[in-house]
Amino acid sequence: MIQAGIIGATGYTGAELVRLLCMHPEVQIQLISSRSHAGKRLAELYPNLNGYVDLICEPEATLEMLCGCDVVFIALPAGHAATIVKGIASWQAKVGQDAGGLAPKVIDLGADFRLRDPQAYQDWYGMTHEAPEFLSRSVYGLPEIHRDKIAHADLIANPGCYPTATILGLLPGLREGILDLDSIIVDAKSGVSGAGRELRLSSHYVEVNEGIHPYQAGRHRHTPEIEQELEALAGRSLTITFTPHLVPMSRGILATIYAQLKEPIGSKELWEIYYLHYQDEPFIQVLPKGHWPHTRWTYGSNMVLVGLTVDQRTQRAIIAVAIDNLGKGASGQAVQNMNIMFGLPETTGLLMPGLVP
C-alpha cells in the first residue's frame, strides 16, 4: 500500500484529496495536518467523511513524519511548499538517505513549482522563491502532455484549475497548427470553492449570490502558467487575454476560449481534430457536435468535457471546457499524477461519473 500524507487537509482541496484517497484501493492515508484545526478529527469538520476516515489533524507535520510516507500532498497556499520540499531534502541528507531523489515523492497542489522562472514567480506572486534549485527537477503535472516525465518524477507541480481547462482546450489546435497564437482570448468562470475555505468578504453568500463578476482581469496569477505551457507547445512566445469570473456555485470551472483560425475550416473538421486527439484519453470527452458542456456534469469527477464549433462569420474557433475545479482542477488530477508516479493505471480510484443532478 502507498502510504500518503496530506499537508493542509482541512481546506476544500485537502478534504477532496482525503475523500478520493480514502476510497483508493492502493493507498492508506497515514498523516493529515492542519494548523488551524489541530487536534480535531477531520470527520468533525467534514461529516461526509464519517465512517471513512478517523484521522486526527496533526498541528505540524514534522520532517520525520513526512519522510515516513511514500507520497506527500501539499495543499497549501503559495510560499509554503518550497520550504517543505527543501526541508525534506535536508532531512534525507541528514539521515544518510540517497540524495539523488526525494523520498517521499511530493505533489504540490499550490503554485511554488509551476513556474520555471523564479523571477516570474516573484513578479506574479509577490514573494521570493525559497527553493529555486528544485524548479529544474519539478514536472508540470498535466498528464495529457507530460505523462512520460511524470512517471519518473519525484516532485510534481500540480496545475492550477484555470490552466488545466485552458491548456486542454487549446492543446489539439496548437498541435495541429490551426490556431492563430496571437488571437487567443479566454473567458473563464469558477465556483466559489476555488477561493478556498478561509473566510473573506468576497466569498460571503450575500456578496456572491445572484451575481457574476470578473476579478483580477489582466493580472490573474494563472496567466503566466498558461502562457508558459502554451509557449512550450508552440515553440514560440505568445500572450493571451485571460479574464476569470466568480459565479454563485460551489464548484466547477467553465473556460470558453476564442482563437482565430489560420485557414478556413468547418465545425465538422474542428470537431474531428479534437475527437481524434483525445479519443484515447480516459478523462477527456469531446461532446457530440452541437452539445456544450455543463459544469455540473463534472461535479465530483476527474472528467474534462469539451464542446466546440467554428463561427463561420469570423472564422474563429470557439472551444468550451468544463471541469470540477476540485477534481481535474486540483485533487483528482493530483491522484491521477500519483497513480502514474507509482506505476498504477492512472484511472485507479478515479473512474466515476459526475454527480447529476
Topology summary:
Elements: E1 2-7, H1 12-21, E2 27-33, H2 42-45, H3 63-66, E3 71-74, H4 81-95, E4 105-108, H5 118-125, E5 139-140, H6 143-151, E6 155-157, H7 161-176, E7 185-190, H8 205-208, E8 213-214, H9 223-234, E9 241-246, E10 253-260, H10 267-278, E11 284-286, E12 304-311, E13 316-323, H11 327-341
Parallel strand pairs: 1-2, 1-3, 3-4, 4-6, 5-6, 7-9, 11-12
Antiparallel strand pairs: 7-10, 8-9, 10-13, 12-13
Helix pairs in contact: 1-11, 6-11, 7-9
Kindly summarize this structure in a few lines.
The protein is α/β, with parallel strands linked by helices. Helix content is about 30%, strand content about 20%.
What do these coordinates show?
It contains eleven helices and 13 strands. The relative contact order is 0.14. The two termini are 34 Å apart. The protein has 357 residues and is of the alpha/beta class. Strands 8-9-7-10-13-12-11 form a seven-stranded mixed beta sheet. Strands 2-1-3-4-6-5 form a six-stranded parallel beta sheet, with helices on one face. It is globular and about 65 Å long. 31% of the residues lie in helices and 19% in strands. α1 packs across α11 and α6 packs parallel to α11.
Radius of gyration: 20 Å
The overall pLDDT, averaged over residues, is 93
**What would the principal axes of the Cα set say about the shape?**
globular
Kindly report how far apart the N and C termini lie.
Answer: 34 Å
SSE succession: EHEHHEHEHEHEHEHEHEEHEEEH
Assess the beta-strand content as a share of residues: 15-25%
Helix count, DSSP H or I runs of 4 or more residues: 11
Give the biggest beta sheet: 7 strands, mixed
Strand order, largest beta sheet: 8-9-7-10-13-12-11
What structural class results from the helix and strand content? alpha/beta
Please count the beta strands (DSSP E, at least 2 residues each): 13
Low-confidence runs: none
Helix content: 25-40%
